[in-house]
Amino acid sequence: MSIEKGKISSQQLLFLIAGFVHGSVLLIDFTVGITEHQTWMVILAGLVITVPVIVSYVALAKRFPGMNLVQINDMVYGRFLGKIISIYYIFFFMMTLSFNIRDVGELYITFLMQDTPFIFLLIVFTATCAFAVAKGVEVLARTSHLFVVTGLFAIISTFILLIDQMDFSNFLPLFELPFIKIFQGIHIVSVIPFGETVVFLMIMGCLNKTEHAVKNTLSGLLVGAVSLFIVAIRNTAVLGRTQTIWTSASFQSIRLINIGTVLTRMDFLIGIAQTILMFLKCSIFLYVTVVAISQLFGLKSYLPLVLPLAGIEVILAATVFQSPVDHATITQNAGIIYSVPLIFVFPPLSLLIAKIRGLPKPERGKGT
Amino acid sequence: MGKKMNFRIMKLIICFFMLPVLSGCLGARQINDLEIVIGMGVDKEEESGNVLLTAQVVKVDMSGGGAANARGGGGEDSEGYWNVSSKGKSIFEAVRQITHKTGNRLFISHNQAVIFGNDVATEGLQAYIDFFLRAHEMRPTALILVSEKKASEVLDAKPETEKYPAMNIAKLVKTYGFTSHFYEVNMEDFASCMMSDTMAPLAPLVSIVQENDCKEIYISGMAAFKNGKMVGTLNHDEARGVLWVLGKVKSGVIIVPSPNKQGEAILEIIKAKSKVKPGIKDGKIVMHIEIKNEVSLSEQTTTEKLATIEALEKIQEATSEVIRQEVMAAFEKSKDLKADIFGFGEMLHKKYSKEWKSIKDNWDEIYPTIELNIDIESKIIKTDLLKKPVSQNKEEK
Amino acid sequence: MKIIRYFSLRNKYMNQAEPDEKDSEPISPDLEKNLEVIKGILHESSDVTIHEFNFGPERKYKGALIFINSITDKEEIHKNILQPLMYDVLLLSNNMDMDFTDIDTIRMNLISMTDNLKVTMLNDLLDSLLAGAAILLINGSREALAIKSIKIKSRSIEEPGTEAVVRGPREGFVENINENIALIRRKIKDTDLCVEKFVIGEKSKTDVCIVYLKSVANPKVVEEIRTRLKRIKTESILESGYIEQFIDDNPYSVFPTVSNSEKPDKVTAKILEGRVAVLVDGTPFVLVVPMVFIESFQSVEDYYARPFFASVIRLIRFMSFIISTLGPAIYVALTVFHQELIPTRLLISIAEGRERVPFPAIMEAFLMLFAFDLLREAGVRLPKPVGQTVGIVGAIVLGEASVQAGLISPIMVIVVSATAIASFAVPAQTDSGTLLRYLYLTLAGIAGGFGIILGLLATLMHLASLRSFGTPYLWPVVPLDLTGLKDVFIRMPIWTISKRPSAITRHDSDPYKQSPDLMPSPYKNDSDDSR
Amino acid sequence: MIYLLLIYACIFIINVPGLVKRKEWRELAVFSIFYVIAFALGLMYVLDKPIPSPMKGLQHLIVDILGIEYPQG
């Protein structure tokens, strides 16, 4: 008996995943600091690594139709151990949600609106996400294709506008960086944009038809990955060496658009597109956290928990880091290491155990 | 489930709209309390050694009411701008010091150009450029210029056709294509050149020409920098040599002696492309530079009939020769300035990254030993309206 | 205190049984007694005529005729009721021994009007009397005869005031419900067209009819409307607006989920698409349910004009809705929060314009918007000629004088007048447009561009969750139905739109309304003699 | 301070009457747990008390104790 009654079609799942991965278009700047002009390679490698993992997510969800992650954990790992793993997941959801909300705040604090108080931006943004979550996952799924279209339009239009300033020789010293940096880059990319799709294990429960869920999930992932790839190429081609010194490389390359006296100040429009995409991502994260917690406590509906959790997330986002530098360094080291087991180990493991124990047995299905 | 769901969402909506109202309008800045800065000049005070910053601020005239009469109003009493200046240990401190005079903070997002004084340039720009890259209001597409003497003088020169000097400077630089004796360098280009340890960034050089009582601005060439310090200047021809190599020549005039050596043929550059391929042959660095350009005969002072195939071919060789001289002049100048203004170092780095590790440390010694092999192919594509010159001497008719 | 009284009132009203019969005693055979009772109930109102007469052979039978002369057709009553009773009966051969005390014999042989029914209870008699029937009472019979002879002068069919059209039929609905149904019947001559009648309102007893095509309309929607109409227990229904608010899907939403129109061709087009029309007696405005957000951007004329022009006009309509809601908000956000986005020269001229304006930008915007709404309302309320002058004079004087006096900056006047013009382009959404305009302006004043974005996202989420009688409100765009998209942002040529809107029509009906290959092309007969 | 109280009063009004009317005691209990946590965090933030950031703890755990770390470029 899962909490979420809403049903989403697998095509909507495609757009949800594409919009979700789009959400972190500005975030690959983490890796730009480390893997200067080889970011595009790192993205491809990251994609290749996460594809099998995501296929395992879909297989797990298909094996337990109509059940979200917390219920699956309970069934596979038994009551006690399942609860602990679920709490670990919930911690991951809450932390990543606070990172994303903080990213939106930082985007506005450093680039667009400098002297508004930080906490005010977070409150208003989280309130909107809470409002969207209160409407239910169906509404988010139905409108997700609009978000994906805006995202793609923003990325492709900036790419075209910057073509004449692109100097493709910036890619040239191909394999120059030491392998440890490349490995860290791949690790970051495979966790932040792609690995976070582990949250969809919570949402895949309410798929009405699951026959080509795998195809849709992968194509959604592909759309997200292609847009990240385009942004990486654009940044490296336009900025070349100076890519590493800016806090956000893609934002800086957008500020360089200068065609005629009209199309010069595009950074605000791209900031808007970025906020819209982050809205989708944060709403999905908030929805997932709320459903996971209410499923853990065995509630009938997740609605009462939306606002208190939003309150917690706002304060968490405001206090988790002091500055963008703090944010970048910690996420690049501890942030991605602690989420490795969640993304790469537990889902395939529970799939394996489910296969061995031949779950889901109907009679023993005593999920909460 | 539906009924109370709606009711709860309704309350949620009210709460959502309640939130922002509580916090009032923070971070709002009305247009009137904005000091719109359109040009900045950075100088160094000799005695105290701290930074003298002059900011050209738009003076919104008080007559108000629509832009039409504003222009009229601006004419008679004083210019529409005001050069405010202040001192400080760093640029940011100087920017904030200005608020003692103007009352509200400088709004530097519309800054067209940053002009560095000669003393600041020679001392080294690292210390000064950081603010202009880091400030969130600063556009990376703002232009960088170096003034021969003091930057504040450049901002004071009152232009004839344009209302604000800074706008005038920006227009001068942006329309470099007509003569291509220098090229537009914005903040980001300058920063990327400064970052690479072998490249020598260039910036247009502004000088003031005193002509019958009023001062006029004149871009007299480019200034070359080596790790942030200005090491020398290039005149127009040398600067154009660099442009030929970088392929940034848009248009311009080439004066070539006519085949029979009495008078010249003047050609207009229509299009120019260049391709540079670095090569290392038995330890010696050779730069193959291939320049293709199209020119048109726009004037001739000789009376010779140039519109024949042989004459045109001879002129084409002569143009290639002139271009070669310009490029070699630029190369010679960069050799004695010991500054890699063409960016050969970066090209080598990209192509031969392994050998580059060894060359990189003693690049200053290796750079003069580089050998250029330039092949130029110029084509005369049209001779405009005239086929034959008006005054043709008798024997050749 | 108020809340408790509200709850007690609600409970009393909820569990009230069907309204009990007032005085439902039967009609007595004695004519005099009946007349006394009826006179008592009708308190001798002046427009009720009671005419007693004798009839039948040797005038021995006594009868009485009661009718309200203001709403009935007197000539018809005299010609078709009184005359046969009082005179023609004598022409019959007097040997016919008809028992004139039996109402049926009179109904069968004498009355020549068709629409009559026998009435036995007194309150039915009164109902039909008030509904415009003439009541015939016979001394000695327990039943009375109610003969429908209503005749109310109704307005002639004119061009509707609200929806003027350049091309297309000029006729509009009128107040009389029967004529409205006639207008629809004339356009859909199909046996499938069903008309169901309801009487709503204790006092007003207004006729409400729902009209739909049985083969196409979604039975669940029709059922839903019936239940909602039956649930309305109110005293009076004077205009379709009452019904609209009673059967609304989301009472708390700013956006209308029930569309109304005055043009028969628009309503018939919607009925043919599977929607249900609700006609209310006494108002030319017909409701059509379910409504989709895109409908307010589609005008009837789009389908009569050629596709390219119609598509451009529709895109302009979308643009104008965006300008009308976001115009002032974006201007305020740009000038107050994000000055770096404005090109330099424009920024300088705005600064010059705003030099002498005392208010902050958001106060200035509110003032101008309030003035504009005031002007629009004044223009509508005043009689036609004066209204227009108020509109024009107000706009010019207010705009110019306030700029001269330095209260408002010239650019703000331009922005607000552009918003004003834009808001007229989408008539169906003017009410929600105005509210949204104020909402976004507040958000822009508080959080600038960020506020506007979040406001837009919240509105999108609210719209996406709205449902109008089961159909998602943003139907072709949010649940993304590609065939439906043909007629949304642009209007594809009419021969390509071969399917009915899938979210509205019933699912088991044939989706095609015309054959898909109707591409018009010149007739190429094989004996083509083109040389 | 006033904003904090207003916001949390608003959250209280939105959820609690509905829960009480529908007699969902379990939901009410869980709601009040998180409500108190959120309110406490908000209070600490408004009164500028140092709120320990879990990420700092995690960083300390992973980098110092377990020693897994990428070389700082």
Enumerate how many helices of chain D there are, as a single number: 3
Q: Could you describe the largest sheet of chain A, including whether it forms a barrel?
A: none
- Low-confidence region ranges of chain A: 364-368
Could you state the CATH homologous superfamily of chain A?
Amino acid/polyamine transporter I
What's the total count of β strands of chain A? 0
The helix-and-strand class of chain A reads mainly alpha
State the name of the first-level CATH class of chain A.
Mainly Alpha
- N- and C-termini, Cα separation of chain A: 8 Å
Mean pLDDT of chain A: 85
Biggest interface between chains? A-D, 38 and 38 residues
Q: Note the quaternary state here.
A: heterotetramer
N- and C-termini, Cα separation of chain D:
43 Å
Please indicate the percent range of residues of chain A in DSSP E strands (runs of 2 or more).
under 5%
Which whole number gives the mean pLDDT of chain D? 85
What is the approximate shape of chain D? elongated
Main features:
heterotetramer, C: 531 residues, alpha+beta, 5-stranded antiparallel sheet, 44% helix, 12% strand, D: 73 residues, elongated
Q: What do you see in this structure?
A:
The complex is a heterotetramer of chains A (368), B (397), C (531) and D (73). With 368 residues, chain A is mainly alpha-helical. Chain A has 15 helices and no strands. In chain A, α3 runs parallel beside α8, α5 (79-112) crosses α6 and α6 (118-134) runs antiparallel to α13 (306-319). The longest helix of chain A is centred in the first third of the chain and has 34 residues, at 79-112. The termini of chain A are close together. In chain B, α10 (236-246) packs across α11 (309-337) and α12 crosses α13 (353-361). Chain B has 2 domains: 33-63 and 75-234, no CATH class; 246-390, 2-Layer Sandwich (GMP Synthetase, Chain A, domain 3). Chain B is globular, with a radius of gyration of 27 Å. Chain C has helices spanning 2-14, 31-42, 74-91, 103-109, 122-130, 177-187, 219-231, 240-246, 264-272, 301-304, 307-336, 344-353, 361-381, 384-404, 410-423, 430-465; strands at residues 48-55, 61-68, 116-119, 133-138, 144-148, 193-200, 206-213, 259-261, 276-280, 286-289, 467-468, 471-472. In chain C, the strands form 3 sheets. Chain C has a 5-stranded antiparallel sheet, with helices on both faces. In chain C, α11 runs antiparallel to α15 (410-423), α11 crosses α16 (430-465) and α13 (361-381) packs across α15 (410-423). Chain D has 73 residues and is an all-alpha fold. Chain D has one domain (2-66). Chain D contains 3 helices and no strands. Chain D starts with a helix and ends in a 7-residue tail after the last helix. The chains are: A mainly alpha (368), B alpha/beta (397), C alpha+beta (531), D mainly alpha (73). Chains in contact: A-B, A-C, A-D, B-C, B-D. Chain A binds chain D through residues 33-34, 91, 95, 119, 123, 180-181, 184, 293-294, 297-301, 303-305, 307-309, 311-312, 315-316, 318-321, 329-330, 332-335, 337-338, and chain D through 7-8, 11, 14-15, 18-19, 24, 26-28, 30-31, 34-35, 37-39, 41-42, 44-45, 51, 53-56, 58-59, 61-63, 68-73.
